[in-house]
């Protein structure tokens, strides 16, 4: 894994806050994230954990300090610590009490070549909209229902 991001070739970067009820991390999503990184779809830049206790108190945990760290080992670039304690506290404050979250910053490496090509041709993405999975699933189901009618 290359440890330095190059401004002219970096793909789009997302921050995902993945919540878990019950104030626990069991680490089962780690295998999927490992697979995405291994096949070149994403590159994990930073990864941390946040918990909001039942009392509303927020605790932040770095990936290397957590009981599930072994499952996430080797994912985040150790030289790039982009999530500040302030960022993590703000995220944690937005969680429901009794909730835990993995906060992951990843580069969409699948798009890096496109970004470079657009940049060299003076092109730019004028709009990008992420459509939630459930909205797509509902639309597909509506199409299927229409075909059956």
From TrEMBL:
InterPro entries: DUF6325. This is DUF1269 domain-containing protein. It comes from Nonomuraea soli.
